[in-house]
Design brief:
The chain is mainly α. The protein contains 14 helices and no strands. Helix 3 packs antiparallel against helix 7. The longest helix has 28 residues. It is globular.
């Protein structure tokens, strides 16, 4: 893998994370007044023309319809679990907490890259991964009065996201990033449609927890402002899906994954600006451990592989 390709993968990753942070902000803003499936449907439909344009310039529309489509659909189902669990967690948890726990994903990616891609990870990097999971435990606070079951959702999201990105790496030699993103969005849209059919009339609404309310609330006609926000999610999702998929498609997962932690900066910034959410001492410790572990993994990879180091620089 060339230095240029690795560097480009890192750039794609950073851009994708920055773009997706805007979607997290929007979904958090609307989570108290609208159902999740409504935002997902509007997002999914809005994404379609952008994804088709990406496909046109990434090998042509014909690349969407290949013998590998069933595998891309299965990957789309895994991605749906990843994003769905993250989205409903947003309604019940502060944005920085949700994103920090979700960033267990790069830790999972590092482990999965060894198991399924035969990539080499040093003993020190393994120690950093275990330390990162300790940070996750600190943030979840199991057994304490502050424990919220919704904190398990972004961890599930991180695991399934890691699986989806590893499969993108395995499919990267035969499928384009646009095709992977297109079928991911198609599954996303189909699942949202099924949820809408079940929950749209409001008869199954559960209000005992903000995350459950976000999932089960009946359809609400959006204002022009809120409709614009939901459609913006579609543009953001199309760009973000393509950028992240492209990153893991062309570069080693263990090299680009640590850069995902830059999203923590965005989450803290948005949380403070819009809700005045600021992590407490234990929260900062957990965030610091998770982010520090990821950065340490990156440094170990640079020392282990001169090629990776030069590419990062």
């Amino acid at each position: 893998m060339s230095h240029k390709t690795t560097s480009l993968g890192i750039i794609y990753l950073i851009a994708g994370i920055s773009v997706f942070s805007v979607q997290d902000l929007i979904l958090k803003l609307i989570s108290g007044g609208y159902p999740l499936y409504q935002a997902m449907l509007i997002r999914g439909f809005t994404s379609i023309p952008f994804l088709l344009v990406f496909a046109h310039f990434d090998g042509g529309i014909r690349t969407l319809f290949t013998p590998g489509a069933p595998k891309m659909i299965l990957r789309g189902l895994v991605m749906f679990v990843a994003y769905f669990s993250f989205y409903i967690a947003l309604a019940g948890l502060p944005l920085p907490t949700t994103v920090a726990l979700y960033y267990s994903g790069p830790l999972f990616i590092t482990v999965l890259s060894v198991l399924f891609l035969s990539e080499k990870v040093s003993a020190a990097a393994w120690a950093a991964v275990l330390t990162g999971f300790l940070g996750v435990i600190i943030m979840v606070r199991p057994g304490s009065d502050l424990f919220d079951w919704a904190a398990l959702l972004p961890i599930l999201s991180g695991l399934t996201y890691g699986i989806s990105m590893i499969t993108a790496r395995k499919m990267g030699d035969t499928q384009t990033a646009a095709a992977l993103a297109f079928w991911g969005n198609a599954v996303f849209l189909s699942c949202a449609g099924l949820m809408a059919l079940y929950y749209h009339d409001g008869s199954h609404t559960v209000t005992s927890h903000p995350s459950l309310a976000f999932l089960t609330r009946g359809w609400i006609t959006p204002t022009a402002h809120d409709l614009t926000l939901m459609m913006t999610c579609g543009v953001v999702a199309a760009m973000g899906l393509w950028l992240l998929t492209q990153a893991y498609r062309i570069a080693a997962a263990s090299v680009v994954a640590p850069f995902e932690y830059l999203g923590l900066i965005w989450s803290v910034l948005w949380g403070w600006l819009f809700w005045r959410d600021w992590p407490d001492a234990q929260g900062w410790i957990g965030i610091g451990i998770i982010a520090g572990a990821g950065l340490f993994v990156l440094l170990q990879e640079r020392r282990r592989s001169p090629q990776s180091a030069e590419a990062v620089v």
